[in-house]
Amino acid sequence: MMKSLLPQSQLRRAAAAGRSSGGGAASGGADGAGSDGGAGGRAPAASTFWFLLHALCCLVSLFLGFRFSRLLFFLLFSTSELYSTSSSSSAVLRATTTTTTTTTTTTTTTNTFTLSFAATSNPPPSTLANHTALDSAAAGTSGHTQSHVVVGRHGIRIRPWPHPDPVEVMRAHRIMERVQEEQRRWYGVKEPRQVLVVTPTYSRAFQALHLTGLLHSLRNVPYPLTWIVVEAGGTTNATASLLARSGLTIVHIPFPDRMPHDWADRHATENRMRLHSLRVIRERKMDGVIVFADDSNVHSMELFDEVQKVQWMGAVSVGILAHTGAADQPRLSEEDKQNMPLPVQGPACNSSGQLAGWHTFNSLPFTGKTATVVGEAAPVLPRGLEWAGFVLNSRMLWKEAEGKPDWVKDLDAVGENGEEVENPLILLNDPSSVEPLGNCGKKVLLWWLRVEARADSKFPQGWVIEPPLEVVVPAKRTPWPETTAEHSSELLNTKQDQEDRRLSRTNRSSRSRSTTKRKGGVQGQEN
Amino acid sequence: MAMPLALLRLRLLALALLLVASSGVASGQDTERIEGSAGDVLEDDPVGRLKVYVYELPTKYNKKMVAKDSRCLSHMFAAEIFMHRFLLSSAIRTLNPEEADWFYTPVYTTCDLTPWGHPLPFKSPRIMRSAIQFISSHWPYWNRTEGADHFFVVPHDFGACFHYQEEKAIERGILPLLRRATLVQTFGQKDHVCLKEGSITIPPYAPPQKMKTHLVPPETPRSIFVYFRGLFYDTANDPEGGYYARGARASVWENFKNNPLFDISTDHPPTYYEDMQRSIFCLCPLGWAPWSPRLVEAVVFGCIPVIIADDIVLPFADAIPWDEIGVFVAEDDVPKLDTILTSIPMEVILRKQRLLANPSMKQAMLFPQPAQPGDAFHQILNGLARKLPHDKGVYLNSGQKVLNWTQGPVGDLKPW
B285 - beta bridge partners? Predict the structure, then answer.
């Protein structure tokens, strides 16, 4: 508070010094000048008295500050007539109540102080205000009540602790959340439809990684959601427990076949799993928008806002991330680099915003270098159009649905002969009626990525370590020599030698050996 | 036996109607109808309810002033010019003064600008007086009522007191010649000398085109809690503080400069309008005068106005229920502003936002060119129409004089 006083008091001093022309000593003598200005030509005795008074004023202002000295004099010399006027009484009240803020008390009292000394030479302009307020209060303008809003200088009200209160901040944030929710209701999607997310998965090392990521994405979706997880090889407890912890509505469907280790076969199996889940959706007459979310893909929140707009079948742009997994990137020629199209799969529109064709991922630069086995350190590429880029209205699958267009095939007619179901376009008689979403495919709403560990890589079941790990690498403190596992046999031999040596030396310094042995023993147990 | 059955049916019908009505109200978005103390009058059409006669004054009172300085057309006092233009081509204008209910004098008293664009009010009393002298000598209608059925647009800081400093304005009071006329002004404060009873308060002029070009999509989430851009201390005119805004703006700064919920500063960002659309509350504190274009901007951008000006009278106060739309904070309560704003119940905040979203509310605050139904011009005419019919006391007997033409400071009596 003193800091804030200083610059203002300096300003005031400068202003006061400017105003009191020729008056006052250096240290805030303006009030003294004012008070003795009218009394310039008195007797010498009186003048020495005034000089002493002036000196007293200076001393007081030195200690109490420029404005406080005025307050002191106000309190000493205030007359009764001050209390009769409405404006000054309110100022007095203000002086007594706002004692915590020194700036306010002093600024308000300057008004009333100068009122009592009618002969002051340089009244600050605010007194004029108080005079007019007084005049109008006294005279009483023709019949209408005087406003209780006082014109003139007012105090700057500062509360003692001008910092945010955490409870209020939380309340404000809750208000903001609620307002934004209301905004979404008004201007966002009018009738949000349920989102049915179809995910094929199987138990492997990277499953927990991928499913956890997808789980978190789905938890953030602001629409009602059902997660349909199809698991190859039957449902497992590990997957089930992961899904149970998600807090979402889950439909966990077993798929009889196991997931093959070959990428090509894996793609085919996944497609069959997706078809299976579509059949389940049809059986259970689930209503909503079907999004194909592969567990290793990453989805943006805008995707779920965009899919609400789909009528029957829509296509979005998918960013294809062909991760090589190897340290060196495939060497691309300059020509390749220039001709390299964007790694995006999605609908292509003509100028009038209608579907004209498809962008697919150009796999030419990667020929011969793609991974064939799951977990191989080579780029994994999509085949043609990925299911992830398509969105369906579940009513399209139902046997009878209102307004179901005739360019939709019946689901039973698809994939019954064991044919390869490459992409959802196979569900349509007429692939040109697919709606391009995401600003006609301009916005990439999700990313396709395939990252897997080797099929035989070990991971703890359910990522719970049971039984506890054995010591594989010794800690620094143990007296065991630092050797790798290969030399473990030699270690045993050396240990034996050491033991023998120790036994032979026990005669010399038994105590030290024994203590180290004990230490080693204790530490071994601690390990 | 038929009676109870009929009653039952009636009751069922009533219940059904109630359910339908409530579901209709509760369904999703909606704006609420705005009703003030004068009733549901925002969308009234003034055509046919009144007739206005526009005096033809020499161009030195209007056109020449605009020609001298065209900034008059875009500053916040431009309402007087646009009102004239609107009336000239409006359906309520009549060329026959005998059938007119109201008489309008197109004199632009706020068009004398300094090089920096601030209007000087020093000649305004003389200009007004000269205009009134002209109309009283060329037409008999002024003397018939001594101006009681005439209206004037005086959008300056303190209305017809014609001064920018409050004490001086109070000292002068309303121009004596305008004591019986209806004043259409932006200034409004209860029990203040410069607000005559029966005046119509209007919003200050804010450029509608400019605001429209800065609109952002309405689904942009409102993430700023409180927003304000402007001066807190007017160091040029009030170096010591406490004078400007009666210390309220300084109080806002000192109390909330460290509060992350308050986005307040003296900056002049180019995204000022966009930021207002991303805020929930917009502060509208008083400055040298209690009114400011911030209120108009807040209403147009859907930001709840927090009005910190004791006893202010807001525009079209009888047509718009400002208590239900804005938040009023007493100047003494400024240190508690955060507590006040965070403890407003959620339903109240959402209701205020719904009221603000009403397009008729936004339209009523604007002066679009050309005029559109429901805009501020029409609200002024509605206000004038509501004052009709004039009561008998308006018409004076021949020879009866009420106004004193020599009243007022000597400087005002000089001809212009």
Answer: B308
